[in-house]
What we know:
Structural class: alpha/beta
Radius of gyration: 19 Å
Number of strands: 13
Order of helices and strands: HEEEHEEEHEHEHHHEHHEHEEHE
Distance between the termini: 25 Å
Shape: globular
Helix content: 25-40%
Amino acid sequence: MSVSPLHSTVAALLLTSGAATVLAQASASSWETIEAPAPAQCSDGSAYSFHVRRADPERLLLFFNGGGACWDATTCDPQGSPSYRVSAGPGSGNDPREYNGAFALDNPENPFRDWSQVFVSYCSGDVHLGDRASEYAREDGSSFTVEHRGRRNADAVLKHVTESFAPQRILVAGGSAGAIASPVYATVVAEAYPDAEVIQFAGGAAGYRIPPPTVLWERWGTIGALPRALDASDANAETLQMLDFYRLAAKAKPELRFYTWDNAYDAVQERFLALLGAPGELLLGLNANLRELRSDVPTLRSYIAPGEFHTVLRYEELYSRSSDGVRAVEWIRDLAGGRDPGNVHCAPYCDDP
Length: 353
């Protein structure tokens, strides 16, 4: 769950192939910012917006942004040092034009340079999965309300996507907080596009080996907000674990393929584990999580890189990182192209070179 810079610790889409090529070339660098109507909103009640780039109509990258999370007065207070993105406007870290990696449209190595892209902004503090207004009390007796409306925001984006795009291959990806939500929304997208190839990718979130985070689900109203496509009728706040989203997604849509990307000692995941009362060496929990997930979800593949960096798709590290002789960009190019890239692990040399 990547943190806010303010927190130091913590249609035309169905054109013939020739016309589509012209469209893709003409609009390859054009981003459109769309303000979603109510009930979509950010944590502070401000307007929610997201970003769309139309290029190849056959391929779509749907990216859920990261930006922390909050669940108590300390982590949520917008007047203090919030551990999440409070709004979606300028300067909030929610503009793809400010990023590198998959959004570096001038880089010929970019696997998604010619893809249509939708950048799902994040400003709800609930890993895109909540639907509750929660009140938090400060030590001085005052209180404030956080609109944990990630599900409503995601629904607004997905409504636009299904009304505007008819792709044949869709990568539903997320970084950090967005990574946690990515298997959930991959299931929703697979339901909406039954004839398309839907692939899930998560960067920087597979290391959360913790007991069920009941307080999160309750503060955010997550259980009641889980999409019907996930078939989570038996889920409850006392038993649901973060990685159960993969198990539920695989059960609902067995044809889905799942991919996780993590750094062995991801400093942001370690920081949030400490905040959640589960400090420890990330790699041990990460390895255990992946062993269990591969057993339960045979279509899951993972990549573990050395070092403390956090996530990959938004940054230059997409091109500079490698593990066990495999470049991150090539591994991701293979999975996005429908090829099985296998599992990659930096062991036994998981420190930065």
